């Protein structure tokens, strides 16, 4: 492990700028911001853990879902991409068997790795995610031990960029490098994170978020076999397309929407069960259409509409991947718009029915359409119901788009994103 002083010297000399540019973009302002961010985190670690002088640096990106809205949990296909917002950690192994993790802005999380059963009082907390990752690693035969860490995050909380998934994958990466051989398969890392979130944190998430955070770049994932998803990187340079990816935070939080998310999966699967299966991927769209009269006696109308959304968006992913790989960006944009309208009208996840007066996401989508129609694309971001939307904006309209959306949702609402080629990683530049 390198010494803190050696890493600080490298940052001061600018030697890691090539690596930082790959992760965050090559603009000088980006590089300066990241150098200062890294330096501050190192000082925070030195202050909190003064007895530890040798450390490792780890980075895990957030992600944006591009296609396949709520398709993963029914064995469908998705298209997603890692972004240049990340969870960053400074960590050092210890021999106490205790993990002490200080996350910026939060109390320390302290986990004794000799006690890894579920703690009910930890539900929905950082400690639950750490304990769950440790428990699953140990169940799979990997070593689990203590470490001290300081973590800072640029991943937007509660906004559909997958802050929880990035954190789970980060913790697993730290444990892999500090207590194992550092060669854990990224897909297994993702599955461990999903286990922690499902069984310890208490959120019934799919596997798309963790997989994208672990793998990086544009990624298409086929979940027909949940135990062995097919993951493939998609070679497309968004920066060279003349378009920018913008995430707009409409101000709503995902924090209290667990039941809304769970209802989508539950209702889609209720259609599959009514047809004699477990997930919608087992049946064709035509089968559902042919059986609607029967299905209406067994499940809700909303469940049927959500099932029809599943089939449409599942097939759209295949078409989106083909469009990107054939460099047919106009076709890709059309498909993104189609996906957005399907989410809005069929999947019905652009606002919560429990709080129907708060419709920030639809407002943002309507304004985006007025600015971008015929030029760009717009859709709900991630799980939906509240939080963020996603837009692909032509560079010559970028200032106009940012001005209009910021005027509505606030100066800090719009975030121009870069697609990060690398997934979770241990950083070496000292």
Walkthrough of the structure:
With 430 residues, the protein is an alpha+beta fold. It folds into two domains: 4-234, Ribosomal Protein S5, domain 2 (2-Layer Sandwich); 238-417, Alpha-Beta Plaits (2-Layer Sandwich), CATH 3.30.70.890. 44% of the residues lie in helices and 19% in strands. The protein is built from 14 helices and twelve strands. It has helices at residues 4-13, 17-24, 28-48, 126-139, 163-179, 186-201, 208-215, 258-274, 285-290, 292-295, 301-325, 329-347, 360-372, 398-409, and strands at 56-67, 77-93, 98-103, 109-112, 147-153, 218-222, 230-234, 243-249, 377-380, 388-394, 414-417, 425-427. Strands 1, 2, 3, 4, 5, 6, 7 and 12 form an eight-stranded mixed beta sheet that branches. Strands 9-10-8-11 form a four-stranded antiparallel beta sheet. Strand 9 (377-380) and strand 10 form a beta hairpin. The protein is globular and about 70 Å long.
List the helices and strands and how they pair.
Layout: H1 4-13, H2 17-24, H3 28-48, E1 56-67, E2 77-93, E3 98-103, E4 109-112, H4 126-139, E5 147-153, H5 163-179, H6 186-201, H7 208-215, E6 218-222, E7 230-234, E8 243-249, H8 258-274, H9 285-290, H10 292-295, H11 301-325, H12 329-347, H13 360-372, E9 377-380, E10 388-394, H14 398-409, E11 414-417, E12 425-427
Parallel strand pairs: 3-5
Antiparallel strand pairs: 1-2, 1-12, 2-5, 2-6, 3-4, 6-7, 8-10, 8-11, 9-10
Helix pairs in contact: 1-3, 2-3, 4-5, 4-6, 5-6, 5-7, 6-7, 8-11, 11-12, 13-14
